[in-house]
Amino acid sequence: MEATVATTETQGKTWEGGNQPLRASYGKMMMWFFIVSDALTFSGFLAAYGFSRFKFVDAWPIADEVFTHFPFLHGVPAPMFYVAFMTFVLIFSSVTMVLAVDAGHKLQKSKVATYMFLTIIGGIIFVGSQAWEWGTFIKGEYGAVETKGGKILQFLDTDGNRVAISSFATDIPVPSDEAHVDSNGIWYMGGETATTYSYEEVTAGFLANDNLLIRTQYLDEHGHPTVLSREASIAKLKNDGKLVVEGANLRHNEYGHPLFADFFFFITGFHGFHVFSGIVINIIIFFNVVIGTYEKRKSYEMVEKVGLYWHFVDLVWVFVFTFFYLV
Amino acid sequence: MAHHEHNLAIFRGKLKFKSNEQKIWGVFVFLSVITIIEVVFGIIKPEWLMAPFMSSFEGGFFATLANIFLSPFIYMKPLNLIFIVLTLVKAYYITWDFMHMRDEAKGLRRMVVWTAIFLICYLVLILLLEGDYIYEVYKNNFIKFDF
User: What is the pLDDT of residue A180?
Assistant: First the structure.
């Protein structure tokens, strides 16, 4: 195990090895190289997000209207608050991590262990929060109708408030509206997941309520989604409507463009996976600290290396936060 | 490697800390303040920051040149520009103080930072230009597949 922190006897011999032109150990430098390549991977994802967003720049969902939930506050719109909380959790776990590294430099074993433990807790809170955020996003809130062209129609009342489809859809009894699942289907194909209401039920409900209007994905010159008149709404729904969308998955997205949901799942998922592996590595290092591996080595450099990774995960989140939730 | 020398000054030497631990807390406070500013702006979205400060120049070569140099002010909402600048500030302090880039050798620092910044800027430039081009084609052109 000495190899990881080797200072060999070759100092002064430039071409004999053991020379550290960058004054960083092998392990630390490799961690930096890994971080650079991982940073490029994440920027590839975020740049692809930017590409798709610029492609549909006049019809992209507004993040403030998508992420409005806070745990235990049902029906209270709280845009940004939860993700701000998550950001603080991650920044704070970065602080405890860097405090662990600092204590490691001073060879204070119990302090390193305490700070590592706090870092792990912070990471777990963050991943849990992200799971909750995913759950809320997948479940959806108001529901929408998707047109034949794949665009999303959302429902408003005349005061401009969003209306959930469940509040106006009329119940039309259908002889067999059970989902077409693998076990009773022809061949091995399952059908589309059945939604609570069918397109016909939503349309009937919409026609019966005169105070309902349709909002399209397209943003007007002030950046607000366009609201159609009652006549135009009826025409749009009857002529173009095709299916009901509740929540979001990789193909349909009630909040707007499906690509938004795809990138959301992919980028926050990839980041969440990084946090998860960071937690696992942190736990391993934590136990190594506790059993005294680094105390024997007289070097806590492993803590420093895993710290670099952990800060990098925080760094990526700073960018995800900006480009997904703020900009 | 056990005893690193830490550079304890931030803000170009204007703020010096007595110990590394104090510096960590100082940077944490700074990052928190920036995040709070971001969140507050993100919730309020002040009306005067929602439209670009300048409109693009019309005319010949120099107008085009001016449009390119001033593009962040012409084509971007000031609010978004503020968010991006604040993000880069946060990224700087996370890398420099939490990841101890401040204490690394100049060569390592340049190798990591310049490589990443160059490649990311290049990629973002190309993809955003292409995305905007496709948007224009979808919006204005008659031929929508042969481009």
Answer: 62
Structure tokens at A91: 């920044």
Give A182-200 pLDDT, tens digit per residue.
Answer: 666 566 666 666 788 888 8
Asked if the Cβ–Cβ distance from A326 to B42 is below 8 Å, we say: yes
End-to-end CA distance of chain A: 47
Q: What are the chain B neighbours of A95 within 8 Å (beta carbons)?
A: 24-25, 28, 98
CATH of the domain spanning A21-140+259-326: 1.20.120.80
Size of interface A-B (CB pairs under 8 A): 149
Residue to substitute from A89, A94, A108, interface B, most B β-carbons within 10 A: A94
Query: How many whole angstroms from its chain centre is CA A35?
Result: 20
Question: Measured between beta carbons, which residues in chain B are less than 8 angstroms from residue A54?
Answer: 128, 131-132, 134-135
Whether residue A174 has pLDDT greater than 70: no
Of A51, A94, A325, the CB nearest to B94: A94
* Rg of the Cα atoms in chain A: 26
pLDDT at A4 over 60: no
Q: Domain boundaries in chain B?
A: 9-103, 105-147
Q: Tell me the three state secondary structure of residue B49.
A: helix
DSSP B70: T
Average pLDDT over chain A, rounded to an integer: 88
Domain boundaries, chain A: 21-140+259-326, 144-246
Contact by Cβ (8 Å): B17, A118: no
Contact call for B99 and A311, based on CB within 8 A: yes
